């Protein structure tokens, strides 16, 4: 929105043309989202406490978590608001990719909000029934996939890229819709499963989102894309602004969510952020790199699948508790140790993901 105003003023006063630079608007997006989160965070926490919107802690989990009972939740609404407002302020609103990622993020946030509301306000432990949660996730994910497929102007936007292989690109056709659906819905639920300790999910989200912003910038730049032998996706560079707002809003939220957390993000935040990462990765054609960089999210999800599968098939559990971060807690790791070590793993994986730009 401010870009439109700046373009108009630039006709009469040339210094306003500086706002056309993508990197500047990305920096302003980070700062705006960060400021929004830091300034409004205390107010939001106070209102959540007054409304008694607190987290209910399971009795069968680590005993150290019992002290978290009643900690305000649904704080993810702050993150999503900061992302949405900052994106609308600094992004090019004529760019279709901006609207796709923004709408997917907001729709998944709405699904998470309903689930959280039913759990913490209506005191319904089931929240939004799983079948309905998955149904609305599927509708949103499939809708985004179909839109991206039917509006793709080139085969490069629907071809599968394999990292480390220079000349391989599989033109997926309709399979693009299937892959996109699973990436968006799968990443959404993976981040949701990871959000079980103070700050555990938000910093990996910031790191992966920032790295995807690098891919978006390079994919949207013809010369860089050609030099690095990655698909050139016209207009994808504008997603740098969106990824920047994820980083800013996430860091601002981490200020309050770091151990011991003053607020939890809830499903309204985790479902939306996961979907946002998934749809950005699809647009810049880096689904496999997302799988690498989001290894912590993958590990958490696989641990749940293995735990449930093993118990149903053999009656025995593989881990002391799933997701796997609880397993390490029950083994005696203090919560901060689990969190920081998972952060370190994410840093390493993100660096590996970025290395695929040259190792081909």
Structure description:
The chain has 14 helices and 2 strands. It is globular, with a radius of gyration of 20 Å. Helices cover 66% and strands 2% of the residues. The protein has 360 residues and is mostly helical.
Major sheet attributes: 2 strands, antiparallel
Strand content: under 5%
Please list the strands of the largest sheet in the order they lie side by side.
1-2
The helix/strand class is: mainly alpha
Number of strands: 2
| Secondary structure tally, helices | 14
* Shape summary: globular
One letter per element, helices H and strands E, the order comes to HHHHHEEHHHHHHHHH
- Report the uncertain regions: none
Termini gap: 39 Å
Give the fraction of residues assigned to helices.
Answer: 55-70%
Q: Any idea what the radius of gyration is?
A: 20 Å
Which descriptors apply to this entry?
2 strands, mainly alpha, 66% helix, 360 residues, two-stranded antiparallel ribbon, 14 helices
């Amino acid at each position: 929105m401010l870009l439109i105003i700046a373009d108009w003023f630039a006709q009469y006063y040339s210094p306003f043309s500086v706002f056309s630079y993508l990197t500047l608007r990305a920096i302003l997006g980070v700062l705006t989202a960060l400021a929004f989160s830091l300034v409004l965070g205390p107010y939001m926490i106070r209102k959540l406490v007054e409304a008694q919107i607190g987290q209910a802690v399971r009795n069968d989990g680590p005993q150290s978590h019992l002290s978290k009972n009643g900690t305000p939740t649904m704080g993810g609404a702050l993150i999503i608001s900061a992302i949405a407002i900052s994106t609308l302020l600094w992004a090019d609103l004529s760019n279709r990719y901006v609207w796709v990622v923004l709408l997917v993020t907001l729709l998944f946030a709405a699904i998470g909000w309903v689930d959280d509301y039913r759990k913490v306000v209506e005191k319904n432990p089931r929240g939004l029934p799983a079948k309905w949660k998955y149904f609305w996730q599927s509708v949103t994910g499939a809708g985004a996939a179909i839109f991206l497929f039917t509006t793709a102007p080139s085969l490069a936007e629907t071809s599968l890229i394999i990292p480390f292989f220079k000349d391989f690109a599989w033109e997926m056709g309709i399979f693009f819709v299937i892959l996109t659906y699973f990436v968006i819905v799968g990443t959404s639920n993976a981040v949701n499963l990871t959000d079980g300790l103070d700050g555990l999910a938000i910093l990996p989200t910031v790191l992966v989102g920032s790295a995807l912003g690098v891919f978006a910038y390079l994919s949207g730049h013809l010369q860089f894309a050609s030099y690095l032998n990655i698909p050139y996706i016209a207009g994808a560079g504008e997603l740098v602004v969106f990824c920047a707002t994820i980083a800013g809003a996430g860091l601002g939220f981490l200020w309050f969510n770091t151990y011991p957390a003053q607020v939890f993000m809830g499903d309204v935040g985790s479902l939306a952020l996961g979907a946002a990462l998934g749809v950005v990765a699809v647009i810049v054609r880096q689904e496999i790199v997302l799988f690498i960089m989001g290894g912590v999210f993958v590990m958490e999800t696989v641990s749940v699948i293995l735990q449930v599968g093993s118990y149903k098939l053999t009656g025995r559990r593989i881990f002391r508790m799933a997701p796997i971060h609880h397993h390490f807690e029950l083994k005696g790791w203090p919560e901060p140790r689990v969190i920081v070590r998972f952060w370190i793993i994410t840093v390493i994986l993100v660096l590996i993901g970025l290395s695929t730009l040259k190792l081909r």
